[in-house]
Amino acid sequence: MGDIMEKRDYKKIVDRHKPTENRLFNAIIAFAVGGLVGLIGQLLIEFYSSWLSIPTQDATSFMIVTLVFVSCLFTALGFFDKWVTFAKCGLIIPITGFAHSMMSSGMEYRNEGPIFGVGANLFKLAGSVILYGIVAAWFFGMIRFVFLGGV
Amino acid sequence: MIYLYSFLFAGFVSLVGQIILDNTKLTAGHITSIFVVIGAALDSFSFYDKIIAHVGGGALVPITSFGHSLIHGALAKAEEMGFIGLLTGMFELTASGITAAILFTFILLLIFKPQN
Lengths: 151, 116
Fold this sequence. Notes:
- The complex is a heterodimer of chains A (about 150) and B (about 120).
- Chain A has about 150 residues and is an all-alpha fold.
- Helix content of chain A is about 85%, strand content about 0%.
């Protein structure tokens, strides 16, 4: 009897502590991984601007393309999904998440053919980012253009 | 010092996303969409430009910079061409990222077969 009670008490304690601990752990991991991706972004910008001697603006495009390529490749090779499950928002919020969502939905629907599989589902997750990004950018741009007279 | 700021800012944005994801019913799709809108809103008064000037790459990596790039390109063209510039300039700065993502996805889908 005592044994069962102990188990029940133990389970209670576990239930009480588990969610908060997981949330804290998730938050720390997301902060660390997201920060690391940001740091890599800055390092890539400096690397490209000194190596190719191009302005920072152009080096930014190179950096974005590099990160997109790496996350597409790693998703295709199969281990990026595990990283995303582990780091969650640490990899979803950076541009890596955008590329990963496209690549993974492409992989998922590849067997259903090139048109109704890949073509129709490629932007399944990334589409909402583009849609709301454009609507918001147009709306705020319009407000600023009308009321503040352009830039 | 810019490396530390890059780390802290990108980490902070991811942390906020993770806290929203864990404590509400919103999914990752909701959060990325909200963050894009926030990025566009912040740049409508050039606030995000100031963040980028201080933080560097750390502010260009999170999805908020996607919204910033959209409105930034649109406003730059609007200054030149008027209202129609808001439409023609929209993808000016983000085109590289989106085109690269589409191309790499397509090419890699031809090469790799999905597991399981």
